[in-house]
Write a structure and sequence with these properties.
Layout: H1 4-22, H2 50-66, E1 69-77, E2 83-91, H3 96-102, E3 128-133, E4 138-143, H4 155-166, E5 174-179, E6 182-183, E7 217-228, E8 231-242, H5 248-258, E9 281-283, E10 286-291, H6 306-317, E11 324-329, E12 347-348
Parallel strand pairs: 4-5, 10-11
Antiparallel strand pairs: 1-2, 3-4, 5-6, 7-8, 9-10, 11-12
Helix pairs in contact: 5-6
Signal peptide: 1-26
Keywords: Signal
Organism: Saccharococcus caldoxylosilyticus
C-alpha cells in the first residue's frame, strides 16, 4: 500500500510526464522519419483462406506486370500503298521478334492500335510458329501455311515489312522465311527470290522510274513526308542512283531536293533551288552539310523547317556509320529550329520513327 510520501512522488512523476507531452515528446514529430516503411498487409475476409489471398495477390502482380509496355516499330501499309514505320506501345515480353510479327497480322492484336489510314500486312489467320536468331545475325521466321494467302501485289510489301520490322533490333541483320518448318527460296505467290535472306540493303518502297540499266546503279534510301488527317509522318523510299555518284551522302541529299514522284501522295519540304555548296564532311560518325540559303524555305531568318531537318537526319543516318547530322548555311552554324531554339548541336536519329514527335 502507498504511503502519503509515495503517493506524492507518483503524482509528481505523472505531472512531469504530462508537461513533457505538451512540449512534443509524445507528439508526432515531422522531423522524425520511419526507418522501414509500412508493409502492405492483406486481411482475410470472412470465410477466405490464406491460400486464396495469396493467389489473389499473385494475380494482381501478374496483371501489373502485364501492363508494362515498350515502344516498337511496326511496318504497316498506308493509304498510298507505302510500307511505313509506325511506333506503338506493345506489352513488354522477352519474345520480342515473335511479338512484333504477330502484330503484323491482319485482324490480329494490332487491330486495337492500328493508326488511321493504315493496314496490317500479313494475311488474317497467319500464325507465327517461331523465330530463331542465328549467330551471324540472321533471324529465321516460321509462319503457318496461311502466310501464303495474300494478293500478288502485296508480296514485296509483305517481305519489306517483315524485314524492316525485325531489323529494328540491332542484333538482327537479315531475315529468312520458313512456312510450316520448311525454308523458302522464293516467296509463295509471285516467287520473289529470298534465298540467303533479305536485309535493309534490299530496299523498301523501291522506285526505279527512269532507270534504264539497273546494273549500273546502287540503292539509296531517303525519307519523304506524307500526311493522314492532321498527322504528318515520314516514308522511306529506296531509289536507284548512278554508280557514277560515289558519294552516297550527296546522292541522298540530291534525291531529297529532287522530291518524290508526282502523284505518289508524298511531298518534299525542300525548295527546288536548295544546293550543297561543298562536299559533305564526315568525321567520327558526324556528317556536316553546308547549304545555300534556300535550305530555309521561308522568310524567317536562319529558321530551318522541322520537316526538312527530320528528313535529312532520317535519310542520312539510314546509311552505315552515320550517327548525327550538323548543318551550316554559307559556312555559318547559326540556324534556328521552328520552336526558336538554336540548332547548336548535331542532330541524332530518334530511337523510334513516327511517334508523333521527333
Amino acid at each position: 500500500m502507498f504511503n502519503r510520501r509515495s503517493w506524492k512522488l507518483a503524482a509528481s512523476v505523472v505531472t512531469s510526464l504530462l508537461l513533457l507531452s505538451g512540449c512534443g515528446l509524445f507528439q508526432k514529430d515531422d522531423a522524425v522519419k520511419e526507418i522501414d516503411p509500412p508493409q502492405d498487409v492483406s486481411y482475410l475476409k470472412d470465410g477466405q483462406s490464406l491460400q486464396e489471398v495469396t493467389k489473389e495477390n499473385e494475380g494482381k502482380q501478374e496483371k501489373e506486370k502485364a501492363t508494362e509496355t515498350v515502344k516498337r516499330e511496326l511496318y504497316l501499309i498506308d493509304k498510298n500503298g507505302f510500307v511505313v514505320p509506325q511506333t506503338v506501345e506493345l506489352p513488354k515480353t522477352k519474345a520480342v521478334a515473335k511479338q512484333v510479327l504477330e502484330y503484323l497480322v491482319e485482324d490480329g492484336p494490332v487491330s486495337e492500335i492500328l493508326p488511321n489510314g493504315f493496314r496490317a500486312v500479313l494475311p488474317a489467320g497467319t500464325t507465327v510458329l517461331g523465330t530463331k536468331l542465328e549467330k551471324d545475325g540472321t533471324l529465321i521466321a516460321d509462319f503457318s501455311p496461311e502466310f501464303a494467302h495474300y494478293k500478288p501485289e502485296d508480296e514485296k510489301k509483305i517481305l519489306q515489312a517483315i524485314t524492316w520490322t525485325l531489323t529494328q533490333f540491332d542484333n538482327v541483320k537479315r531475315v529468312k522465311i520458313r512456312i510450316n518448318g520448311y525454308d523458302q527460296d522464293v516467296m509463295p505467290v509471285n516467287k520473289t527470290p529470298i534465298q540467303g535472306g533479305v536485309s535493309r540493303a534490299d530496299g523498301i518502297n523501291i522506285e526505279a522510274n527512269g532507270v534504264n540499266d539497273i546494273t549500273n546503279t546502287h540503292p539509296v534510301t531517303v525519307y519523304f513526308v506524307a500526311q493522314q488527317g492532321n498527322e504528318t509522318y515520314y516514308v522511306p523510299v529506296t531509289r536507284r542512283v548512278s554508280n557514277k555518284e560515289k558519294d552516297n551522302i550527296t546522292a541522298a541529299v540530291n534525291e531529297l531536293i529532287k522530291g518524290p514522284d508526282y502523284g505518289s501522295g508524298l511531298v518534299s519540304s525542300f525548295q527546288p533551288d536548295t544546293k550543297l555548296l561543298e562536299k559533305p564532311k564526315y568525321e567520327d560518325g558526324k556528317v556536316t552539310l553546308n547549304f545555300n540559303e534556300a535550305i530555309y524555305g521561308s522568310n524567317k531568318k536562319n529558321v530551318i523547317s522541322d520537316l526538312v531537318l527530320n528528313s535529312l537526319v532520317l535519310s542520312l543516318t539510314e546509311q552505315q556509320g552515320i550517327e548525327s547530322v550538323s548543318i551550316t548555311v554559307n559556312g555559318k552554324a547559326n540556324l534556328v529550329r521552328e520552336d526558336g531554339k538554336p540548332l547548336a548541336k548535331p542532330v541524332t536519329r530518334p530511337t523510334n520513327v513516327n511517334t508523333g514527335s521527333f
